[in-house]
Amino acid sequence: MRRAIISFVVLLAMPAWSQEGFRPLTGWRAYGGGPLPQTWTIADGLISHHPGGGDIETMDTFGNFELRFEWKISAGGNSGVFYLVDDSLPAPHLSGLEYQILDNAGHPDGKNPVTSAASVYDLYAPSSDLTHPVGAWNSGAIIVRGPHVEHWLNGTKVLEFERGSSDWASHLAASKFAGTPTFGTGATGHIDLQDHGAAVQYRNLLIRDLSAR
User: Fold this and answer.
1) I need a labelling partner for 102 at 20 to 30 A (CA). Which of 113, 123, 132, 209 fits?
2) Residue 142's domain spans which residues?
3) Domain count, the chain
């Protein structure tokens, strides 16, 4: 009965769009394998992180998917949601793209659109700053259909692009990931929550497979 009540609350908290095919995103471990670091806690669908301990990742991998989540960052904080991550590499940023999680008003990265909240970190800027103030929850979404990727923030699509396109190549060449051959190339990969030295919380993480859609 408790599990059913939690699921019902999760659905009510999501934006008013289709819930078809979604399931809770569960099954977390330390990046690269191993038990969950003590700095991360998961209880009743809430994932909380206190600085230290390293990143965590899903045990499962995902290719074509839609991920919805809510996030709340601490004052001056910086974190990220990585996807299409190859955890055989030393760090997630060597392969995965990052949905930036940030206090835009209180962190220096907020002054640069390509490193602000909901950006594809250092590659694509969101169309506008739609973040809520620190202490309030924000909703995010990541959609991957083959090469096509979208980021959403608080109910609005704020960016989209095609991996492998000439536009992608120009953005990549201008980024810190230029010269990293493993970056952004995977068809599937883990989802990773970053330890970037700030307290951060996530809830209502829901995912659906888009392979047949």
Assistant:
1) 209
2) 2-209
3) 1
